[in-house]
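To close the chapter, one final illustration. This time we ask the reader to focus less on the individual chains and more on the assembly as a whole: which components sit near each other, and how the overall shape emerges from the parts.
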Amino acid sequence: MTHTRTRPRRVSLDEVLARLGEPEPMVKAKVQDRIDDHSRRFLAHSPFCTMATADAAGRADCSPRGDYPGFVKVLDDHTVALPDRPGNKIADSFRNLAENDGVGLCCLVPGMREVLRINGSGYVTDEPEVLARMRTEAKEPELAIVVEVAEAYFHCGRALIRSRLWDPASQALAEEIPPIGEIAAGQFGAGGDPELLDQLLKDGYRKLY
Amino acid sequence: MQQTVIEGIDGVADDVVALTLRATGGELAPWAPGAHVDLALPNWLTRQYSLCGDPADRDAYRVAVRYDPLSRGGSEYVHRFLRRGRTLDVSLPRNHFPLADAPHYLFLAGGIGITPLLPMLRAATAAGRPATLLYVGPSLDSMPFVDELRRSCGERVRIVETRRQGRPDLDALAATLDEDTLVYCCGPAAMLEAAEAAFPAERLRAERFQPAERSFGPATPFEAVCAGSGDTVAVPADESLLDALAHAGHSLPSGCREGVCGSCEVAVLDGAPEHRDDIGAPEGRMYACVSRALSARLVLDL
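The assembled structure is written out below.
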C-alpha cells in the first residue's frame, strides 16, 4: 500500500495540551540561556548532533553532523560553532540559514542517555580564528556555522532508553537493511549496478576531511 | 601504550598545567632528555608532550601543557576536562631531539619550550659540562618551572622577560660562545628563526611544536609495495600514504597526521621518499602521514 485514503485526524493544540497536562516546574527551570560548565563538558565529549533549520516559508530540514568529540566548539557562554566538513554539497542548511536563522541542535554522547539540546540563531562564518580551532587531521573546514545560543538544556533519557540506542545488541538491526548501494540503485532507477554504487559510496567515504 | 593514572594536574604558571602520570603496573619505559610521549586523550585526540620530569624516576612521567586559545581540542581538553584519578594511555617515549655529547651547551627556551630543555640542563649539569639556559618568556608569571630551575641550576639559568627587557640579542650571544658549544633551542617559530639566523646550522639543534610553513610541488600519485605481504597499494594524489595504507588493510599507528609527532614512522626498503615532515626522518625511514614519493614506487617494510 502506498497511499492512505483518509488522513489521520488532526488534533488542535488546545486539545494536545489538555491531554498532556502541565509540565513539572523542574522541567521548565532546567532551560538555560547559556552554555554552562555541564553543557561545556558534555559538548567536549559529543561526536554527533543533528541540526535542524527551516527556510523562510517554514519548510524544515534536519541533517546529521559528526566529527571528533568536541567538534561543536564553545566560543563563549552564549556562542557555539560547528565545522562544515565535506559532504554532499547540497547546502540545504546554508540556504535555510540565509533565509531563516533559526537552528536547533540535538547533541549526543555515545553511552549517555540524556541529550543536550541547543536552540538559537545561526549564520555562516569563515573567521580564521574559528576555523583554526576546527583543524582536524591537518585540514581546516572552509566554513563554519555559528550558533548564538538562546536555550540550552538536557533532555531526559527516555527516548534513548526506549530505543536501546547504545545497546550493542541493537546494531543487529542494521543487518536487516540492504547495503546503501542497493538502496541507491533502487532510488536512482534502472542502470545502477548496486555493487558498483556501493563501492563508489565506500570510496567516497575514504575522504572524510 | 603504557597505562598511567593522572595523579596530579597542577598549575605551574599562567595557563600552564603540569600533569603527573603515575604507572599503574610496574615501571614506566625509560627515557632520555629530549624525549616526548603521546597522550591518548579521552576525546580521541593524540597529543605529543615532552617529558620534563626526572628520567631516574621510573614510576611517573611529568609533562607540562600550555593552554592555546586556538586549541583544536588538545590543550583545551587537558586544561578544562581532564580529571585527576582517571587512567590515561601514554605511548613509549620517542626521542627526535636527543642530547648529543658536547663540551659546552647553550639551551634556548621560549615559554613552554622549556619542557625538553629542563631535563637536558639537569643532565648536562650532572655530567659536569658547562651549560647555560637562556629562558625567554613574556613575564615570570607565564613561565613554568622558574623556581625549580633556579633552585637546581642556580646561576646557569638566565631569565629574560620580554615584556620588561625585550627580546635577547642572540647574535651578540653567538659571538661570545666557545666554538664547540652545542645549542639546543625549543620555542615559538620566531625564536627558532632568530636562533637559525644567529647560530651555525651544524651547532644548532631545534625542536618545533607546529609544522613550519613550507610549500611543496603538487602531490602526485605513486605506488607503495608492502614487502611483507607483497601487496601493492595505489596512493592517489589526494590521499596520504597513511590513509591509502589503512584502506588497504595496513594500518599504521598515527598521531598528529601533520608530520610532527613521528607515530607513523615506517621503514623504506626501496624507492625515493619525498620527506614533508618536520622531524627530519632518519635514513631509510619516512612518516606516512605527510611524506610522499619522488619515485613511482616505494617498497615499505610492512
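Chain A has two domains: 24-162, 178-205. Residues 24-162 of chain A form a domain with the Pnp Oxidase; Chain A fold (CATH 2.30.110.10). With these observations in hand, you are ready for the problems at the end of the chapter.
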